[in-house]
Design brief:
The protein is α/β, with parallel strands linked by helices. The chain contains eleven helices and seven strands. Strand 4, helix 3 and strand 5 form a beta-alpha-beta unit. Helix 2 packs parallel to helix 3, helix 3 packs parallel to helix 6 and helix 9 packs across helix 11.
Length: 261
Amino acid sequence: MLFGKTIVVTGAASGIGARTAEVCAQNGAEVIAVDLRAPKVGVAGFVEGDLSSQAGIDAIVRQLPRRFDALCNVAGLSGAPGAAPTVAVNFYGLRALSEAAAPLICEAGAVVNVASIAGYGWRANLNRAKSMVAVAGFPDVAAVLKEHSVAEAEGYPLSKELLLLWTQLAAHQPAFKARGIRVVSVSPGPVETPILGQFRQVFGDARVDSDIAAAGRAGNPSDVAPVVAFLCSDGARWINGTNIAADGGLEAAVNAQVLGF
Ligand SMILES: NC(=O)c1ccc[n+]([C@@H]2O[C@H](COP(=O)([O-])OP(=O)(O)OC[C@H]3O[C@@H](n4cnc5c(N)ncnc54)[C@H](O)[C@@H]3O)[C@@H](O)[C@H]2O)c1
């Protein structure tokens, strides 16, 4: 499915990113991993890098291949380290990396963002999301959060709201669209990775357990990685600017409860 492609995967040292790197390699891709820590899975190249600052992004971009086919933005924080670092890594860093990498991505390539069902409130919070996405570059994130009166506990869902909105916007930005680069997102439900324990601290056991019960079981990285890999492939060439849920039916179960169908 991915034979002959070079794919950059952030967050490849753990969880969904590690499995994505593996699945892409198994499907024929040459995988370049980007993470704070070295990946345990076999990859063609590793860029040790930090997505939390513009300097970190610049250093990563300098080490990326000069041409590649897809960027999988999987790295993320749970909210436990605080709202500012979380929004910095999960949104402003991800966006800065994608924009800086766009000229290196081949025509008809793809940017695949791992968002979350936790970001589905973006429509309800549209004005805030629009205003925060409109802040260009890699801003002083703490100052942006203060200006928008964001509470500490909102960091994680907010970061994914911004990402879901930006995915749609970016698909129509010349940097991507003019070169046929698709920008899409995948939203997992609860997945058994190290971050899930942190979600229990941030959101509480009751919320995490009720999501797991609604989906029938917790996911594992193999439930999500093949979806990310497919979105990098030519078979996904008509999927653009949209979000694909890999949530075990969680959204449908919640809707059935809330909307009474
Ligand atoms: N696990 C879940 O329940 C779940 C649910 C929905 C969405 N997600 C999303 O999936 C993505 C992957 O999460 P996961 O479950 O695999 O978590 P994980 O903690 O297993 O992996 C996250 C990876 O991101 C890397 N990372 C963190 N900060 C970084 C930085 N500043 N620079 C570079 N790399 C950094 C970590 O080193 C780690 O390897 C995240 O974006 C997360 O928000 C996870």
